[in-house]
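Sample 1 of the test manifest.
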Amino acid sequence: MVFDYEQSVALADVPVLPVEDLRRDVLEQIRGGGRLLALFGLPGDGGTGLCAIVAHSGERFLRAMRTAPLTRYVSLTPDCPQAHLFERELWEQWDIRPEGHPWLKPVRFVPHGCLTATPGERPGPAQLTHYRVDGEEVHEVAVGPVHAGVIEPGHFRFQCYGENVMHLEISLGFQHRDVERRLLSGPHPVHARLMECVAGDTSIGHATAHATLLERLAGVTVPERANRLRRLGLELERLANHTGDLGAIAGDTGFLPTSAWNGRIRGDFLNLTAEVCGNRFGRNWVCPGGVSVDVDAELCARLFDRLRHCWRDVREAVKVMFASASVMDRLEETGEISAETARTLGLVGVAARACGLARDARFDAPLSCLPLCETQIRVEKGGDVLSRARVRSRELADSVDLACTDIQALSHSEGAICQPLPDRLPAGRLAVAQVEGWRGEICHVGITDAQGRLACYKIYDPSFHNWAGLEAALRGQQISDFPLCNKSFNLSYCGHDL
Amino acid sequence: MSPLTAYLVQFVLALLLAPLLPGIINRVKAKFAGRHGKPLLQLYFDIFKLLRKGEVVSRSASFVLSLGPAVSLATALCALALLPLGGVTSPLAFQGDFLLAAYLLGLGRFAVILAALDTGSSFEGMGASREATFSALAEPVLFSCLLALACVGGALDLETHLSLSGMLGGRPGTEWLLGRSELLFVPVVLFVLLLVENCRIPVDDPNTHLELTMIHEVMILDHSGPNLAYILYGSALKLWFFAALPAGILVPDFPAWWAQALCWLATILLMAVLVGVVESVMARLRMYSVPRLLGGAGVLAALALILTQIR
């Protein structure tokens, strides 16, 4: 079933394929340059079947397919590694066993994470086996889940030979809050607030994805002014986080100036967000149907002024960093991933663009028909920490461009900012929302039941795809480079753990 | 004033002022970053605070853990006592005492490494291995520097000319002012050694909280209370020791001991400022580039040695 990404489809129109056909179709699409957007369990009469959604970059159309209820099937992962985490999740949540999966273990290690009526026991985070390299001179380093800094919990297991990392395995799930299950039988007004907590640093991103999904399910078109305001919010979020990330990368190399300046400038960008919606992280900015806050001409003038000011600061701070030979030497060729690996793992966002993959949901699946000015997909070739820093620094300029355009357009116009959604969503429909958050593509998938309530809701933060990229980036690197590589990805723990 | 009193005054001064050096470095870094920074005397406060605190000892650790801080502090003190502070000959000076000083510092490091291994933590093991590697590479560099100094007009004072007091007691200062500019390589090399031995950027990052990248800091993670205070004070003394080495080369002989002492003090404080500047303007080297830095320093030291010979 092929459908336009902006439309919802009736679930009845999605053909029910035998699992072998679904498997063949998905593999064919992936081989043809497609990307697995989602693969999840679709509860229905008599059990849970698979549902897969594949996207092709540069195409408006998504492909959806599903199977009848099943309990086991031949795993996709050996032929299509980017399915690995989806299949582990399927097994954890629905007890559907992908046979032949090379590394089948739970994703979030929730003891009772199963969504079926008879939950099977799953090992908790502490009872887990990790991949192990044996040998006289091989040693294992375990980091976390409690870290030295104030950061989220995650467990990292390094298999080292001296200073060289042979293998890194990352174990997450400590932040699991059962977000997806809370959304079932919605939509409910409080869910918009809940979505802002999926990943606190991507509040606007996830809120926009959720709102867009509900609008597509309901078939509602958002007023243009609301689209402008949403894009302004997303770009401000991107500005703050890219600035912070560049500062953190400088900090990990021990380069003081950019680290200190960017720390401050990130706060300035967050304060701009607070000017509009009252919260530094953009809470209560977006609501289903539009946005909850409007800006007047006076606020626009102030925002514009301060944005130019912050941009001037951050541009200089980043220039200092890239002009320093010692920083460049440190970043170059650290944590390299080839384009091939990135494509195989299905990386998204900054990490994918740094490997030369032109993936940006702002261009592949735009939320509105607002012009994109001079911006383009910022692609670098290297795949190393330097490339990831470069992508960020070039996207800063783009974001300022877009934000300034939007602020000017908003100050000269007026209009509605919200188109209320109907009380009840249409029954039995499927929709997909892709939003380019600052980290990468956020994908939400929702399906309504016969009463128009959400029967299935899937959230894919870019971190879901990219943690595997960090594992790959560390192969054959120095263990002392791990913090730097980690910062250059800057992935979310709670966005992954949900 | 007798030389002994002059020496004792300066030794006490060194003991008192050593914790000021990290304070100066931090203040310079703060200025570069546009911050106000911690108080200059922060390390004094920290040491006094730690001395009053209790201690947490890992169940897997043995007595070796508490041996590390004590030995490293004692050896740093003894090594400092062999230096001709302010150009005044140390009362403990003897022929070849530079070997003793170098290996006293080595012994201190050995004790800290043992203490780190004693905890059984994989982080501390990694830190210990890095520290051992880099210090093994730093040792020949230090000796080539001292050798170059020993080759300069050693015949003047036979009794002490192969001691630290003979090498650094103002003679090199007078010599380079008279045109032996090849001697000026030596303080540059010694400055690099200062950065390496005291775990400063570009070799180590004393401010990082990332265990996987640390060298020295990760080895002392398990120490707390008074033992941590000893380690902090010992490192401050070691920093003073290494900052005093360039002073011994750059400052010439003065007729008045106090004038020379003041010049020494100024040079030592200047070294701290210089460390702060270096830490503010450059990033850390990646781990496997550190031997290249030391190799470069070694080549420079060898060059100085050769040039002193052809004269």
